[in-house]
Amino acid sequence: MYKILAKRELAPHINLFEFSADEVSTKTKPGQFVILRIDEDGERIPLTIADADPGKGTIAVACHEVGKTTTQLGRLKEGDFVLDLLGPLGKPTRIEKFGTVLCVGGGVMVAPLHFQAKAFREAGNNVIGIVGATTSDHLIFLEEMETTCNHLIVATDDGTKGHKGMDFLKDLIKETKIDRVVAEGPIVMMKAVSDLTRQHGIPTMVNLIPIMVDGMGMCGACRVTVDGKTSFACVDGLEFDGHKVDFDELLARLKVYTPQEKLAYVFSEQGERN
Amino acid sequence: MEANKEEPKIGVFICRCGFNIGGVIDVSAVAEYAKNLPNVVFAEEDLYTCSSAGLDSIKKQIGKFKLNRVIVASCTPATHESLFQKTCEEAGLNKYLFEMANIREHCSWVHMHLPAEATEKAKDLVRMAVAKASYLEPQKEMELDICPSALVIGGGISGITAAMSLARQGFEVHLVDKEAELGGMLNHLFKLQPTEREASEILREAIIAVKANSNIHLHLSTLVHEVSGFIGDFNVTLQTKNSNQSERIRVGTIIVATGAEEFKPTGMHGYNESLNVVTQLELEQLLRKGELKKPKVVMIQCVGAREKTGRTYCGRICCHVALDNALQLKKLDPNIDVTILFRDIQTPGENEHLYKEAMANCVNFIRYDPNRPPKVAFKADGNPSVTVYDVYLGTEIELESDLLVLSTPLIQHEDGRKLSSVLKVPLGADGFFFEAHPKLRPVDFASEGIYVCGTAHGPKNIVESITQAYATASKASIPMAAKKIKTGAVKASVNQENCVNCNACLVSCVFNAIESSAFGLPRILEANCKGCGVCASECPTGAMQLRHYKDDQIIAAIKALFRSRKRPEPNESFKPVILCFACQWCSYAAADLAGVSRIQYPPNVRILRVPCSGRVDVLHILKAFQSGADGVIITGCLIGDCHYIDGNVKAKERVDVMKKSLQSQGINPKRLEIGFASSSEGQKFAGMMTDFVKEMEKLGPNSSTSKREGEKLVQDTGKA
Questions:
Q1: In chain A, positions 125-184, which contact chain B (CB-CB < 8 Å)?
Q2: Which of A156, A187, B537, B682 has the most CB atoms around it within 10 Å of its CB?
């Protein structure tokens, strides 16, 4: 059992949870993830780790309520427990001194991206951060990113805060020498960033979380096509070369269980109301 | 309702349609019943609501009772929906606040001998319409400006014809071809039947006309590199092949006339092994040059066509091409010995005379068996000798020849395949461009404003290609001449609040009507949206909705159907109540046809119109069962005939998923069914309903309250 030590609402339906998880925290590196299960009948969901403090024995994850399990998790409060927290899983992000690193984050994934950005900064990089969301209400971790990055840019799809859309990125890439890009967020965002940087030959890493089951490379549910070859996100990733990922296939695969997910949510909410 | 904040004030007009409805249904009782339904402030019966008196009454009551929703219960919406909508608009009521209940085709005409049941059903249908109407919202229709210029891709005879036709109508045309010269396939042909005119001669005249027309801008040695936008406003980037220079143009419509190429049968029948084995197209080159001196010619038909897998299609023109070329050889020298090895000679229509002429001119025909195809060996002098099993003689024959001609089909070329992804239009299983509907929209793509003609669409002869080219020019000229098009208001719309940026909607849309913003917010290109609602059903959170067919509107109708359902008395026989979702195209029309044909089926079925079977969400089905449906049947167009490409396939997939979930909810999966019917299959529709009702009668009432079993379901579906 893992106790929720703190819960903070980052945006509507997006929460940051700090779990007491001694052993996980001592081994966690940026870019890794845990698989969480709320209770014995619960679904196992992968969540990228947003912070780890081995001193306190805690890890943090951010979660956007999108379906049954994430909504259940969102209802938990400080002092509540979840049954398991399996991890850290996956390979850590490659952190080196690259020079200037551009960290592009969208939506809830800005939280785990911040963990990586911090490590890049500590490794001596000049870190430019981009925090994006569909609308200003959904921007998260602005203060944290502001502190961590040498320079921070804010953008929203609807232009309610910062730049409108991502057109500014074209100019930024032209004007600034960027040695590495790390993108974490909606698939379409990672795809757009990768398409843009490909033209300029800037190495670009993306963080992929497809549908996962065991998280240990056994089931193959999380397969993604990278450079024409099948990889397993859980053991080969989460970090992949954005210029080689088949994003369209990933998008299509992610929606395969939509009807089931929808039904599960409805049934679970009915149980909640009754 | 938000857009129309005032309380719904609903007026219901129930039509007797003379004896058509009134002769079966107790219309007065239905009108009385309607008066007591929630939000209904006025209800009346009319002899004919569609008569001028009926229409006047609608207008009068809208004014008198300040009606803000109007329902007409009468015939199928296919007949008079637009008339009633117009009437509402004349009285100042937005036409999207109008709703119909079909109590003639779907009720009185199909339950002619069961007046009591038909009356009950009519009440149900009116109640459903009233419930939905309370949730209706006024909509604004969009008007798009159409840029009056067209892009024609491909400068063969199809492209030239389409371009000339549009240019003569005064439209600006950009004619693009990848080659340095116009003409396409015709550049490689010899004489054309039945006129015996040289292809080059016809082409020369056409090219002169194109070059002389000031409305046509020629872009040769050029490829279409990028296309964005939608009907009326396509932004196109052209790229010159050699210099890699690019040019941007803006057009309102696009015609694909990229043609096809002849299949080169490498590795088959000794092709590539000897210069004495050629294809029909290569033979025409030899004929053109007039260098042919071959006394013995053998032709093999269906090489690389009509295969078991891959190119399964018939080459369609190879038979008459072979016959024509055989006759040309005979004309060159009657002593040339020509033998055609065939599977079936297919010469429909006028081409039959070629076959007769070939026989009269002593061309030999030998039928071969595709399971024992002809074998080719080469002699010391390099000449091919063909061994063939003659089906009619039942024996093997060896044919000596000094020229072997292989009849191969046309196939899609690499540039065509690339163009398909540039334009985001589909290719069929045969590799050719795939039209929106094989019968109803044969030269259109599903994406508005893009059309296809000629062999890009599949093997065709010149006449057919030209005919299709005229068809595309005509289709493209409609929006360009109108300068504006009005698009309906039944379009997808997204509620930003609930969107979780998963982009399932974008993936599920086959019309390129959804784009994603940088951080995942879907953006709807209303001009491209056709209103099928598949995206709404694929959306996991309900953020995506289809206007006029929103979840709350559909669910209101479903709940209303079962609201006043009486549980049967113990001694009463069980009468299942069945909800049928019918797509507004073929299956709804099939139900209408059942009515028109007076094909009777049990009165237990209530039909709810949806734009496409793909709009039916698992939640709608669930809601129906939870509200007390004994059975739910979804009907759509025949597979392959969906008006939205594959909405019905998606519906089928969803039904399969749902069946598993129902089981875990203690609901017999047999209670959910999906069926497909074309608009001409009224009998089939009635049959499906009859069978389904019988099945439900066998199963007995759906007694499941289907609650508190969510956890179990999740386990089951999670593993699915």
A1: 132-135, 155-158, 165-166
A2: B537
